[in-house]
Design goal:
478 residues; 5-stranded antiparallel beta sheet
């Protein structure tokens, strides 16, 4: 993948992610307080949208209508979906998105009012009317990919009104139909994020009603809905997965924001992903599931440089591109099967847990292992111009082996480095059987003066070299 304007992108995305600092350690971001899938709480990136809605976009209005998708490629879903979100705040660099590797792009998005009408103002609407989106639609269609429109509502009173208005589904479907036709779009993605059980049946009815009417208008349109990772196992939560599954083409499972409060911890641990998948398969068929993976993680100020240190403050979200370019020493969490890093800044220790090509490759293998419909990305543009991230999504990245934590023989290289299997410094794949691998011996206190990398005493042993998950390669997408 070659990203046009990559310097702009690398400068833009980290700055956008920092807007969550004040709320990043709130209950809505802390997913996994107990083993297994996290509670059904609003995703942290929904908060990013709420903050970015206040920014000013410089997007000229469209001057022409995009061309429609070729008639011979009109099935709502591909045999293997690669679904990526394109937020309105990255439209100015969207010419660099690797549309050739995607089957569906979702423009994120337009807001929905409590009566089901589309809010025709704000940054999401500005992006919808922009020439940048029109050009992205044309690029997607030229690459044989769909481009769908995300319709979103995150405000609880709005969601309450939508769930209880019997006319909301018809109104929303009618207005979305007009928007799809105006831009030759290929369907919708519904992103409704609320809390509690009060709207459970109402939201399921709303989504099903909208989907039914859109499919009646055009059976080739794709309809997906975004759901929490823990929703299938929560019988009293916001989403009724069993009721939603029959009415939509697929569900995008937001398998991220699963870190714990007060502790530096993984954003998307592989065991939690697998737990979420298993719980979904109890109530929905695999062909209805898209496993969402994050192109970002979280950075905590911490009390030491040891794995899962107690936090000294709230976390800040960081894109993979930002972390990979920072050049910090990389370690491997053998339990979560994700990379992490520890570094000092002005005498303060920091730890960041995130996903890189090796951990994303394991998640892609999980999709293949359970025969899911496909994999999804939040969000395009956060990969920092690293083609290995998309290669991992596509199932063509090779997992590596690495030490499990800070050690005397520290793992060298940047947060996104890669090399040959077993080579020093490369984060590696550790399947379920290696979850109990040795972890470093804690140090009593971090080094008081700033250093370029952590210097604790050696860990008892590195993570053992083990084979990757026993799963077949992902099927081709074209």
């Amino acid at each position: 993948m070659h990203l046009a304007g990559s310097r702009q992108l690398l400068a833009l995305v980290p700055a956008l992610l920092l807007v969550l600092v004040a709320q990043a350690d709130s209950p809505g971001l802390a997913g996994a307080r107990r083993p297994g899938p996290p509670p059904n709480l609003q995703s942290g990136l929904a908060r990013l949208d709420q903050q970015m809605a206040q920014s000013q976009l410089d997007l000229p209005a469209a001057t022409d209508q995009p061309q429609p998708l070729a008639a011979e490629d009109t099935d709502p879903l591909k045999a293997h979906e690669v679904f990526g979100f394109a937020p309105y705040w990255t439209l100015n660099v969207s010419e660099g998105f690797d549309v050739q590797s995607l089957t569906t792009l979702a423009y994120f998005g337009v807001d929905i009012a409590g009566d089901g009408s589309v809010v025709k103002s704000g940054n999401g609407w500005t992006g919808y009317e922009s020439q940048a989106l029109a050009a992205l639609i044309d690029r997607a269609h030229a690459g044989n990919a769909r481009l769908v429109l995300t319709a979103k509502a995150f405000d609880q009173p709005t969601l309450d009104a939508l769930a209880n208005d019997p006319n909301a589904a018809g109104r929303l479907a009618a207005e979305l139909t007009d928007l799809l036709k105006a831009k030759n779009l290929d369907g919708v993605n519904l992103d409704f994020e609320g809390q509690g059980p009060a709207d459970r049946s109402g939201i399921a009815n709303l989504v099903t009603g909208v989907s039914k009417q859109l499919h009646a208008t055009n059976p080739h349109w794709q309809v997906t809905v975004d759901t929490y990772a823990g929703a299938a196992g929560d019988q009293g939560g916001f989403f009724d997965i069993g009721a939603l599954a029959p009415g939509v083409d697929a569900m995008f499972v937001m398998a991220y924001d699963m870190h714990r409060n007060g502790v530096a911890s993984p954003n998307a641990p592989l065991p939690a992903d697998e737990g979420a998948v298993r719980s979904y398969l109890n109530v929905a068929p695999p062909e209805k599931l898209l496993l969402g993976v994050p192109f970002y993680g979280y950075d905590w100020p911490t009390k030491s440089n040891q794995p899962n240190s107690d936090a000294a403050g709230p976390p800040q979200p960081r894109s993979y591109g930002e972390l990979a370019s920072a050049g910090h020493t990389v370690y491997w969490d053998p339990n979560a099967r994700v990379p992490w890093t520890a570094y000092q800044q002005s005498a303060q220790w920091h730890e960041a847990y995130y996903d890189n090509p090796q951990s994303v490759a394991l998640k892609a293998q999980l999709v293949a292992r359970y025969g899911l419909r496909g994999v999804g990305i939040w969000a395009l543009g956060m990969d920092g111009n690293d083609p290995r991230m998309m290669a991992a999504v596509l199932g063509s990245a090779t997992p590596f082996s690495a030490a499990s934590g800070p050690a005397a023989a520290a793992i060298s290289g940047s947060a996104g480095s890669a090399g040959s299997p077993g080579s020093p410094g490369q984060p590696g794949a550790t399947p379920s059987g290696a979850a109990g691998s040795a972890t470093p011996t804690p140090t009593s206190n971090p080094t008081p003066a700033p250093t370029s990398s952590p210097t604790p005493r050696p860990s008892p042993s590195p993570t053992p070299v083990v084979p990757p998950l026993p799963s077949p390669p992902l099927p081709p997408i074209h």
